[in-house]
Structure formats: C-alpha cells, structure tokens
Amino acid sequence: MKRYFILFFVSLFCLISTVSALTKAPVDITTMSINDLSNALDKGYITSEQLVNLYLERIEKYDEQFNSINQLNPDAIKQAKELDKERANGKIRGKLHGIPIVVKCNIDVLGIPTTAGAKSLKDNYPKQNSDVVQKLVDEGAIILASTNMSEFAFSASQSLSSYGYVRNVFNRDYTPYGSSGGSAVATKAAFAAASLGTDTNSSVRLPASGAGLVGIRPTLGNISSDGVIPYDIERDTVGVLTRSVSDNALLLGIINNKDTKYDLSKTSLKGVNIGVATQYTKGSGRLSGVMGSTDSDIYNLIEKSIKELEDAGANIIYLDNFVKYSNLDIADSTMSGSTMCDGFNRYIKGTTGTIRSFQQLVNSGGHIYGLGGYVSSCGNSSHYKSSRDSKKSVYREYVNEVFEENKLDVLLYPTLKNKVFAYNGSGNISPGSTLGSVIGYPSITVPMGFVDDFSYGLELLSLANDEQKLYNVALEYEKINNNKVATSPLTPSLYEIPKSVSNLVKLYNEEKIDDKEWREDVLEFFKNYNDIDDVDKTASKLIEDHEVLKIKIEKKNSRFKRILIIFIIVTLLYVFRRSVIRIIRRIIKIIRRIKKRRMLINKRKKNTNKRTAVRRTNTNVRKTTNNNSYKKGTKKKNTKKKPVKKKSTKKKSNNKNRKKRWLDEKKSNWC
User: Fold this and answer.
1) For residue 569, is pLDDT > 90?
2) 386 carries an active-site annotation
3) Catalytic: which of 146, 203, 244, 246?
4) The one catalytic residue among 24, 33, 104, 437
5) What is the pLDDT of residues 47-56, one digit of tens each?
6) Percentage of the chain with pLDDT > 90?
7) Residue 156 is part of which domain span?
8) What pTM value is reported for the model?
C-alpha cells in the first residue's frame, strides 16, 4: 500500500513539474498574425526565445496526431537568443525579426536534411540555404522546422511519404491534400507563424484550401528555385501558406526575385471586374473532371461568395464557355515530370550526403514511390521542351484574349469541386491544376467557408505579374467573409490568459500616459511572466496602479490647463486692452439702457395696475351706493361727480393764476 502511495505522489510531482515547465505568455499566439507577433516582440510582451519554445511545445503536444513536421531545427533556440540580443541592441533585421517559419522538406535549410519526404535522403544536408530561405533569414526569420509532404511532390490528393501520412487538421481520418500537406497543417495548427510550400499543379492551393488558409502560387519564375528539389521544373514554384492575406503578401514581397512589395493600404472592390468560369463553378452532370458537376454544398458557398463580392461593388461577368477541351488537352500533354532526373542531378551538387545522383536515389530503398520510369529521360529531358512551350503559349494567348475582351481583373472558380475524402484516398478535382499551373499565371486561394466542419477555398487567377490585383480582391473578400486568424479546434492554446492580463496588455499597448516607472514595472512583469505564480493578481495590481497614476496625471493636467487658460486670457487682455476697454464700456452702456428700459416698463406696469385698481374700487362703490338707494326707495346723487368738478375747477383756476403771473412778469420786464 505504501508503495502505491509513493508511486502516486511521484506521478503527481512529475505532472506538476510538467505543467509548471510549460511556457506561458501574456498573448495568445494561436490567434496572432505575423504583424501581431512582430508588435508583441517590439513591445516586449514576449521574446523570440519564448516564441520558439511556445511553438515547440505545441509541436510536441499535438503533432503526433498529424505528422506534419519532418525535421526540427536543432539551432532554433540558439538563433532566437541571438535575435533577442540584436533587438535589445536596437538592431532589427526586418519585418520577420524573431518570427518562426516552417518550410516544406524539399527546400534547403542549413542544419536540416532536405529529404523531400524520402528516408533515402535523410543525410542530405545542404551546403547553404536555398535562395528563398536565405531571404527569410536576412529578414530575421527563424526556420523552426521542415514539414512533411507527399514524397517527391508526386501527389496532390494526399501527403504520404516515407515518414507516413499527414492527417487533416480538422479531422485525422481525412486527407490534408498534397503535396504541401505538412506545411498547411503546421500553419493552421499554429506550429509556426507561416510556411513555405511548392506548387506543381495545385500543391500549395489545395492543402491551403483544406486547412482554411491563404495559399498563393505566384507567377512562374518570380521566385528562385535554387536549393529546391525539383519534380517538374517547367511548372514547379515555391508558394506561401499563411493564416491571413496580409501575412501572405508580406512573405511573397520578401522572397520574390523582383523585390516587389504589395501595398494593401488602399483596397476596394468598386469597379473591379471579376470573371466567373461557370463550367468550373457549377459544371455539368453530363461531363466529368473539372467540367463535371460541382458538389451542391460547395456550389452554394461559391454563389454566396459571388453575391457578397457583387454587393461590395465588384462587377461580375459570367463566362459560360471559358473552358475549352483543347486547352485541357494542353494541360495534360505539357506535364514534364521527365525533367526530374536532370533537375535532381543539378540540385544534388549543392548538398552533402550518401546519395550523389538520381540513379543512386532510384537504387536506394528509402522511398515508397518507384522512380525507375524517370531514368530514361536523364540527359534528354529538354528534347520536347519547345513543343510544350508552343502549346502553352497558345493557351496563354487564349486566356489573355478573354481577359482583354471582358476587361477582367481576376478570374474566379472553386479551389476544389468535390468534398474531402479519407487520408489514404484520391480523386480531388481542382480547376486550378488545368489553368494557372499550365500557363504560369498567379493564383490564390482564400477560405470561403465550411461544409460538415471541413474548409473549402475560393480561387482567383490574374495575368502574369498581377499578384497585386489578386491581393486586393482577396483582402476585400477576407473582410467581407469575416475570416479570422485562428487555429483548429483540435489544437487549442496550451495556456489560458486571465482577463486582467489581457486588459493590462491593452493598457500598455494603447495608453498614451507616459510614466517611465509604471511601464518598466509592466515590462518586468512580461519578462518574468512565466515565473510568476499568480499573474492575475499581479496584473490587477498593475492596473490599479495605473488608475491611481491616471487620476494624478489628470489632476496635474487640469491645473496646468487652468493656469494656461488664465495666462492666455491675461495676455489677450493686455495686448488688446484698449479695444477691450471700449467693448466693456459699450457693454456697460447697453446694460444701463436695458436697466432703464426695464425700470420704465415696471413703472408703467405699476401705474396701470394702480389705475385698474382705482377703477375697480370706483365701480364697486357705485354699485354699493346704487344698491342702497334702491333699498330706501330714493335716488342718490353720484358723489364722485362733485370731487371731479372740484378737481377740474382747481386745475382751471391754477392755470388762470399761472397765466396772470406770467403776464405780470412780462409787464414788469417791459417797464
């Protein structure tokens, strides 16, 4: 019995130790965009080291069920510490300073083997970063890990490699699509801030759609492929998977060859012409493939999205005959997996490891897909390139004509026409694989909504190098659709943030009161957040201190305002003293006149009141006397008449006397 008690307490101690060792933060990284994370690092809410630990703990906790991570970067924490030191010294490399990113495992990262999902390449270490990764690093990013994928990017239906299946982030029994399934799942599960993938036919857009992410396939050639294991070099391109349109535009602006930055400050749908390829959006039950019927639930989402775009000011132009069988034939006949052998032999020169050629890779046993069929094209993969290019140019000219005739800005269609299937199934129908992937034009998928708890995307295509138009429409649609940065319900946050802490973060972030001591105390709280036992109580105390400080500052400000107002008034009075005196005198005169008028009005009122009172008393007296005379039977004389006559005679006599006096005075003067 004693032994069981000891085991129980040891287990409890281990559990408590594990919980206390868990990294906490005053902000929820699962709901934060790259810009939010960058602001949090700038403000001091978290450090890059903490951020890396938070993501690593999430990977350790959740990725066993999804298998999205291929290899972790062993130097990630060391790099994070160095970036924290640089930030403390005022050196910020760029907008990704201290932000963890994951990349597909067919993209070279120093210190991580580039496997392309094949165990035969488990020791394939690059001599340097790929071009795209180096651009991220130069901007301050931390490459946290490489992600699992469909081996050698062979499948868009699933992400199966020598390292196993990647599972759907919303339901483990379903596919995440491919071939960048690991990048999509890792990003949605908040194992990193964003990710890079590669897109041959639809390998970025399909997984992004299935994970509720924004995924872009840029214009072919705009992003360097140096340091990327190729499959079809005439279609392959690196793409970006993020949880918001703004994050996507930020990353693409960093990794593109032309250093093009995308401005999302002034976006609008008013006057934007959006073409709707109805054969893709609705389709026909009599046809199959991309021209077949779209699932009714997905179609309802599309119709809702089109109406929302139209209500927001976009001009919707329906294109009922956009899809041509001849162009679908071009899409099928121009796939060039035959370039894989020569492309791999060029790539492998930049790495170290056991495998030194494509033939050695074929002969090795560490891969699940057969590669023998690609050996025959080694050394002659470019023989049919001119034929493929001429076919693509015909298709490209057709799309250009449609855009020009209808004055289109973008073309709209669903990323996927049919519903999600099991993780080991196949049969995805993606219109984008027959369009932008073939002619090299950019296309982006944006979360459209959910059907049975699975995400589906809306895809937009523009002409070459028109990514800005794609981002403009995508951002406005994101706002209309109210898409939020969030993780999957299967991967919630590992820690809770008390309300008081959230309020303190808001105060620190928004408050204009600049008190150095209080801000230093709050910064100290953020730095030691993980070690504080009762963060709720400490945060509440800091908020109380802030309120007290606010009252004091308000009192000081009010005193200062009073003094300032008095000073201004005195100054104005002194400067304009003469005119002020004149004005005051005029005002006094006006006031006196008003008073006099009021006095006269009051006197008149009093006199009228007296007269009315006298009249009333006289009438009352007459009435009483008349009544008395009638009672006695004799008429009484009106006593009021006599005094009136006397008054009038007196007045006359007085007037006569005045006249006499005046005449006498005149006579005396004459004499």
Assistant:
1) no
2) no
3) 203
4) 104
5) 999 999 999 9
6) 73
7) 2-480
8) 0.82
